Structures are given as structure tokens and as C-alpha cells.
Amino acid sequence: xxxxxxxxxxxxxxxxxxxxxxxxxxxxxxxxxxxxxxxxxxxxxxxxxxxxxxxxxxxxxxxxxxxxxxxxxxxxxxxxxxxxxxxxxxxxxxxxxxxxxxxxxxxxxxxxxxxxxxxxxxxxxxxxxxxxxxxxxxxxxxxxxxxxxxxxxxxxxxxxxxxxxxxxxxxxxxxxxxxxxxxxxxxxxxxxxxxxxxxxxxxxxxxxxxxxxxxxxxxxxxxxxxxxxxxxxxxxxxxxxxxxxxxxxxxxxxxxxx
Length: 258
Known about the structure:
The protein has helices at residues 59-69, 88-96, 110-118, 134-139, 166-175, 196-205, 215-218, 236-245; strands spanning 3-4, 15-16, 20-22, 25-31, 37-41, 44-49, 78-82, 101-106, 127-131, 146-151, 176-188, 208-213, 224-231, 251-253. Helices cover 27% and strands 30% of the residues. It comes from Demequina activiva.
């Protein structure tokens, strides 16, 4: 029989450990003893939900947040999230930067719609959520209309090819204002050569590109998440300090993948 969450939990009326159909497959919720609800999409841990918006459980999301904190951002920044999921990162940034505005897009509109029911996402106009292809979402933006662009979209365990090549990065370059920032989550595999086209396209579009991740993952010794950070001016000293003080071993690599 499906287990139910406690009445004080996020999405308390949603059965745990039970597949819920969505357009792209199935989503499942599990609870941890410390109050974290993990969201699984097609068998892969996609995100977490917790009461506190300031706390990020996934390490790559903390890398996202560190890159954004180190960036010279405008007070009323506009961010586009490609790969909305349950909007964990958008919720976090809306809390951290109350004057910011966010657009979250996902090819599967079902999951963001469920997320609206499950927990306290900011309302429009601070957070607008829509169903849209990740390439189209960036390609159709007006020139220099974004301050921040986040890519966190996957098909299974890898970034869809249209979002990891020259075309996507050139559209990103055009859509992001001068001095803007792009952060991209990469599920790194031991064969680092598979990620070279993605990183090379980022470097062709932006002056400064670096990668943040666990040293073993950056070296291709094991699987994990790597965050690409791209801009025309990155505070590398701030990110090195972040890496040195991170709770888990963290490296900053300016030539990844090698």
C-alpha cells in the first residue's frame, strides 16, 4: 500500500514511493528523515523540495548559487530557467533576490503544474512557468533580454543534444546581455570527450568559461555533476574561495574537459 507523507510535509496528500504519470514518463516522491522530499523523474533523482527556500540539497545547485552570488548581477535581474522541473532553483533565487524575475520552461508542462500544487512557488510575475522546448525558449528571446540563463535539462541522464551544441550557445550569447551569466548543469561521464563539444561551444560564445565540480568528476574518474559557468567576466577568486570552503571536495577547472 502506498505510504503517505505526514500532514506537515510538502505535498502531504501525494502518496510516496508511487509513480505519478506525467507527459514525459513518471514522477515519484520519496521522503528523507531530515524533512527533504526528493523528486524522481523516470527513475533519476531530479530535484528536492523542502520548506526552507534558502537551503539547496543538490551540490550542483549550490554551485549554481555560488556562481550567481559571485557575479555582478543587476538588482532586478531577469532569469530564464531551461528545465523547470519543480522549480527548486527558481524558488531559491526568488527568495535570495526578492526583486528578481524568473521564467521557467520545460518540455513537459505536467511537472511544473504539479509543483504549483505541491509547494509554495512564487506567483507570476515573479515566477512564470510555461511549456516550451529549451532551444526554442532561448532562440526566440530578444537580443540582450536576459541577465541570467540556467540550463538544467535532461533526457534520461544526459543533456539533449540540441541544448549542448554550438546553436544553443550562440543563441544564449545573443539572448544574454553583455556581462550576463550562463550556468549549465552537465551530467559528466568518465569519457570526458563526450562533453568537449558542449564546453567548446560555450568557449566560442563567451570570453570566460570554467567548470565547478568534485575533483574526481572533473578528472573523469567517476560520474557526477559538473557546472559550466560562462560570462564575459567571472570573479574567479570568489569561486576559488567558494570551492575551498565547500562542505564536499570541490574544484574549479578553466580547461575542462581535458
